[in-house]
User: What shape does this take?
Amino acid sequence: MSAPRLEIRLDRIHHNARTLVQRLAARGISVTGITKATLGSPEVASELLRAGVTSIGDSRIENIEAMRLAGVSSTMTLIRSPMLSQADQVVAHAEVSLNSELDVIARLSTAAAEQQRTHGVVLMVELGDLREGILPGDLDAVVRQTLRFPGIALRGIGTNLACQSGVAPDERNMAELSALATSLESTFGIGLDVVSGGNSANLDWAFGAPDVGRINDLRLGEAILLGREPLQRRPIDGLHTDAFTLVAEVIESKTKPSLAWGAIHQTAFGRQSAGPDRGDTARVILAIGRQDVDPAGLEAPAGLAILGASSDHLVVDAGRFPPAVGSEVAFQLNYSALLAAMTSPFVSRVFTRGSCDDERTS
Ligand SMILES: *Cc1c(COP(=O)(O)O)cnc(C)c1O
Assistant: This one.
């Protein structure tokens, strides 16, 4: 098999999605499965739908288009505010988009009229994380305008926390979102189908809060794919954290001094701190680098330690049992490493549903 490659266990992704869908259903919350960290993988999207997510969301309209072409037929939500320059594409391929600018909604309305479609809009509310969202005080005015646009259906409101400033979803900000939904409904005499409380960072709140209020949707990526909540990156009880494995091939394996020699200046990626002198050590180079992955987000297998990475080389301290040239090393990935590996044209993907042994025992 070619390297580098991502080995993707669809059975583990299915288990994670299904478990979260069931746990959240008990709280009256449905799940929008977010595929952006997989470059809009149709295989992953289909698995999420089989596991019970109600729809698929992605941050790039190109990914949504690709999933559509591959036959994924669920409702698709564009979760990043559409670019004005892509409004036509957004209306053509996504049923819903998350929005925070009237100029964008106006353009979506024009595109919807031209294409004789209705486009659903979820208005994003700023609740403190300072990424996307309408300030709560401006929400009434934006809703009033949104309701006037032909071809636009106001589907609901949402918020996104923990992405820009690390603000945690909690009872206070979630109650504020619920109250805004209720107040908009009475002010405008409308019903809001969707009150989308946030992303994987909302899970602690969703499982712990005495009352989830009006929140009836979460948009989940990381928790499903990596089995962790993003606030502290703790594994979520009962989920797999190893659905993805990155495999790279050894291209050099030698014993070398542990300290560099010569006049030391910057490296290609800034300064490299010198470690202690440990005499001669086994150093291995793997054919993978910053073009393919965020090296800081890789977890090496026991006995190996990552020393550094440049564009195309990952240098590893191989301890006492250095792998031979041509052999393969498998790494676990965090979100940042997964995102990069999934979007590198040099990293191939192999989808599996577990080994024969797993199938026999499960
Ligand atoms: C990325 C993203 C999500 C999903 O976040 P995870 O932490 O991966 O669950 C949800 N909503 C928006 C707006 C996003 O950008």
About this structure: Confidence is low (pLDDT under 50) at residues 357-362. The CA atoms of residues 83 and 158 lie 19 Å apart. The first strand starts at residue 5 and ends at 9. The domain at 244-352 is CATH 2.40.30 (Elongation Factor Tu (Ef-tu); domain 3).
